Amino acid sequence: MSMSRCSCCSVTRDPSIYALSSPTPGQFNDCPSSRFSQPISLCLHIAECQLWLLGSYEIQTALAQALDKLCNCGMSVAYFKDPVTTCKGTELVFTMLLTAKSAEQLSSLVQAFTSFLENPRAASFSSWNATVEKSCSKDANVTASPPGASSEGTSEPPSCAAELLINEVNPDNPRGQEDMEYIELLYTGQTRFDLHGYWLVLYNGKNNQAYRVVNLTGYCTNEHGYFLVGSAWVTPSPVIVLPPNTIQNGGDAVALYHSTTFTYSVGMAVTEAGLVDAVVYKSRASDRADKLLKILTPGQNILYEDDSHSSQDESLSRCNSQSPRIHSSFQVTTITPFGENACTNSSAPSPTVPSLLINELSLANSTAPCQFIELKGKPGATLGGYTLVFFSGQDGKAYASIPLQGKFRATGLFVIAPSGPPRPDQQLPFVKNAPSVRRGSSAVAVYNSRQARIPVGMMVTLENLVDALVYTWESSTGRGQLNRLGPSHFVPCAAERPVSLSRCSCCDVSAALVYAISDPTPGLENSCPLKSFAVDLDMCLLTPNCSMWTSNPERAHDSLEKVLTKSIEENCACGISQFYLHELNFTCTDSMLKLSGQVWAKSSEQQHLILNWHRDFTASPHPFSVDGRVLKTNKECVALDNAVSTSQNVSSFQAWEIALFVLGAILLTLTLVAVAATYFRRHSLNYTTIEMNDRRQMAADF
Fold it and tell me: What are the record keywords, sorted (predicted)?
């Protein structure tokens, strides 16, 4: 037996985070899961209820010991989740979630809890002068759901109706054999279920089209609700057998549809029509599938099957809820075709973020591959078993391989560089016969080398890849084999000075470009552009033919970004890369290409330099080329836009003037009235004097 940690993030000395389990060296801990859970309530009659509110752990311990005596199933406090204690008069109501490792164990625990309530001697807490109230426990409805039914706990509301869901996806196998791939469906009613009208569609993340469609009509799940589609070598054998290497590694998607009127076909664009459930995934950190995410699982991160977490074959398994199209429902686990998923507790790795990232690469101005490399990971975690590999774009082969040693700093950073100062965490050795870093493309990658050695001369491979960074100094250079490692980051800097490619998107590993040109910051926070220093990139360009831009908009978009980036850098020499361009969009109508977007900056000084470039670029009469497409700034369009803006400002200013004039006139009128009233009040004695003079005159006359 082993004592296994079943709560990854508790840093307190709390014994309740450990559970008795079978030994699992080098594997995920064998812990109770909320997948097999049952809400329970315990009501105690206590003289002084308020004194018991702080005794939650004592109640859990006593109850766990009592249940373990009744079922002899290795029960401990770790099986209780989310305990809540409240007082109702002299009754202490204690509610919690009873979890288990399997449906069978949950059934035994529920039966033991029922026996515990029915046995007065076992139910007596004499040392605390408390007794179980059977009537209260009866009202708690402890057997509201059958044993083995999944409970969502407090994070997700339970689903009332059973439904068919994607339960497990294994798109990538170790050693590149790709003959154990499969997709497992589960009917949550856990009984035989007719699949009439259901379709399984596999999507390619590069073109967002279906590359495989499986019609499930005519099939049924087994008596436990499972249905398997996969390769012939999967054991037990799938119901529908696919050829080896059918399920792509990612970034791709698996979607489950239901429709009796719509026919799904290979080559169709991704659709939400009839969608029941979907999983968008990848097996390498640099992959992306933005459109698939937007349509199939909007607002969520792509799932990452990180094979570095275990030496065994792994899959993406539904563990945390039975809600469709929710990626947080999945964990990275060992494979369990046609069986209960090998779900663990919260200590399981997140399937959305890799365990290790390349955080910064400082490029050298000589034949050396780099000045330093900075990795990012969990503070204190060891890097043993990982290898740093340098690839040349000329032949796609590794020209240097460096096994990693040591641990991440308390900041989560690890610097590999030649001998200091400052002193690196690991020394970067001299690389003999390294290709010129200023020619063509290059790449640096991190591999999990626990399962296989990474030799010099190895061709680019995705097997055991953890993270990779591809970069090029030439905008028109083809990447060749390096294309498999991820998108290429164009470095437009012409000056012979050290610059870095710094990760400026810490957690969005599905983004196309996550690195920005910056000054080197080894062991410190990366220097990244900010939206607060953004410059609007609005301009009009003349083009001979709009069809040249609409036929392949993605390539045109990338090429235009590179040309603009190079133009800005040549003008300001301030360290600009494609990452600085945001929300770049263009529309082409009647030979007029209208461009919109923003250029971010790191400081007000850099922002000022970009503004100067924008002014000079829009005023320049010289044409320029983008992949052979000739463009020229349209001054009239820019002037017209400025005129419209100016006209709007003038109109607004005139209205403001009119309002101010009217307000001033009203105030002036009121002022004059007030002055007149004051004047008449002060000179009213003149009338009295005149009247008195008249009376004296009348008296004299008399």
Answer: Membrane, Transmembrane, Transmembrane helix
